[in-house]
Amino acid sequence: MQMKDATRLKKDMPILEIAEKSPKAVELLAMYGLHCTNCFFNNSETLEDGARLHGMTDKETDLMVEEINRELEKDT
Questions:
Q1: How far is CA 20 from each of CA 1, 57, 59, 60, rounded to the nearest angstrom?
Q2: How many angstroms separate the CA atoms of 58 and 17, rounded?
Q3: What domain range includes position 53?
Q4: Torsions phi, psi for 46 (to 5 deg)
Q5: Which of 17, 44, 50, 67 is least surrounded, with the fewest CB atoms within 10 Å of its CB?
Q6: What percent of the chain has pLDDT over 70?
Q7: Calpha distance 47→59 (Å, rounded)
């Protein structure tokens, strides 16, 4: 099941929720070095938390979210 406009990827979404809603988003996150679904903390952290732990700035996180949402929109 792919994300619809109402459930677009947002940086304040829990990683576990993203993983449950969109396998494609998980693949795209992995391309950015965020292998969050295998992480012990994925049930309590947001995407933004995970990105920070991986050294991403807020601007880099925002750009990543925009790029991933563009890719997800191609599948809808």
A1: 9, 25, 26, 24
A2: 21
A3: 7-74
A4: -90, 170
A5: 44
A6: 79
A7: 13
